[in-house]
Design brief:
The chain is mostly helical and about 120 residues long. It has a single domain, classed as de novo design (two linked rop proteins) (Up-down Bundle). It is about 75% helix and about 0% strand. The protein contains five helices and no strands. The protein has helices spanning about 10-25, 35-55, 60-90, 95-115, 120. The chain is elongated.
């Protein structure tokens, strides 16, 4: 299947859905977390998607493509850390933590596979 837009990428769709879920969940965090955990988790989860979009548009330059994918991978791992903090502070249940953590593990594995096959993505 020929992919013409970053929104057609399965990894983008999964990351976008996870970011939307995190946005909703983080709205329930305590007010004292507004400028720390809430902002951080929203920012990092959204950045996963943004970096995927940038990577897709930089396919002409393999090193830039890989760089943006590694940025996305790092943001996904950062999001996992914030999810863990939310769980430890009892802002989310263990089930929610495990589900989101697993989603981001899957996203990370997809990003790594894209990096490892970067030549096939090049324009």
């Amino acid at each position: 299947m020929l992919i013409n837009k970053h929104r057609e990428l399965e990894v983008y769709k999964l990351a976008f859905a996870a970011a939307l879920e995190i946005f909703e969940l983080s709205g329930t965090f305590p007010k004292e977390e507004k400028y720390s955990l809430t902002d951080q988790i929203r920012r990092s989860s959204r950045s996963v998607c943004a970096n995927i979009a940038e990577a897709f548009r930089k396919r002409k330059y393999e090193k830039h493509f890989i760089s943006k994918l590694t940025d996305s991978e790092a943001e996904a791992a950062e999001t996992q850390t914030w999810i863990e903090f939310a769980f430890v502070h009892n802002y989310i249940s263990e089930d929610v933590f495990l589900k989101l953590d697993d989603q981001f593990e899957h996203i990370i594995s997809m990003l790594v596979r894209m990096q490892n096959s970067s030549k096939s993505w090049a324009l």
